[in-house]
## 1
Amino acid sequence: MNYPIEKLEQAIKEASNWATTGWSMTFGSRNVAVNSLKEAQELKETFPNRPEAINYWVDVETVGKETASHGEKAKVALQNGEVATAINSIYFARYLEKRIRDNTPTWGPVYLALEEVS
């Protein structure tokens, strides 16, 4: 079988770095752009939404690491020919990603690719 290992490895790397690479995100009534954990931590103490921004990006970091762990489990499962187990792991990674990114741009395509080979 031609498993999407490369796509899976890329998703693991991407998810592991979500809080660092970030994406477009705004906070507060003035829609201040805070696009990574580093940017959130560098906000002035007087910015009223600083705690919210930091908490958001810390959550992104936690979810990213958790989904990457599920990706690693899926990779091992594929290496053992256990496609159903891999699909279940990526389904859960996608479910977790949906909490912070509704369109699941990291794990959604991996899930679809695994469904194609199952």
## 2
Amino acid sequence: MDDGKIRKMDHSQERRFVESFIVKNRRERLLNMLTTPKKRHEGLSRFCHRAKDLLDPDRIIMEGEDLERRPEFMSFAKAHGEMCLVLSPDPFVDGQLLPFEDAVIQAVMSFDAVLIIGGDFAVVLGEVMKGGRGKYLLSEYK
């Protein structure tokens, strides 16, 4: 129950994300955290802080603090205009279903960790910190 509303949570996107982009020995725990309401906020935050250690390196196609400004990323975004699920500890962006480019804009404007899940790709942005912000573009097809 959240803010007086009862809503049924469909965790198929989270499940698909974990199975596609997370290293095998970390999948079960992360999936549990992302699909358990009381653990979800902490799970998203913790995941994005340790994304580099948890992501399958074979699925990372681009990374870096300037990710969203790179021409290759912009081309990828234009070619993938589909609706994406946005997950974040930030309640303003969490749970939104947005076109990919709009999801990236929302994610970049948020200071919190953000996970954008598309059809066969995902974007992970860590929380804004003094040392920078990890950003990763992932694809099921490298």
## 3
Amino acid sequence: MNRHLWLLLGAMGCAPVAAVLDPPLAQLNRWNHALPAEIAAEPVSSPCDAANPACRRLHGLRAAACMEQAMAARAPRAACPGLAARPMLDCATAGYEQARAGDASAVLAANHAQALICLGWLSAPDEAARLSRAALSAAASAGPDRAPLLTLRARELGEAR
């Protein structure tokens, strides 16, 4: 019986088997060929165990897609988008937070800090102060090329709000 099951699974192909055995891996495979708008519109498969490397990658891809969608809505030469982009910034900040769990990437930290800063400018003062502190924390891990500017922007957000 077991041999027949393996033959059946082999005949079905790898993608359907991956979807059954590891849904996050199947989603990652789909997203490798998707447009950012498609990725931003689709939540990360649930449950998605933080210990699964595919899950961190999925959260990072979705965060980047949401951030790209948000930043595309900016006015010319603006550092951050307007209020209409708030859902995409919420998506980006949540995704970067999940993607950074156990990943010390300076790029993820810098992008997370930028998303938090932009979200802070669209938030009420108490929320903006919390987001400013979170952005300062993320900026500290953003690497020497981006950390100073992100730290400055996060401090400006905290002082202005």
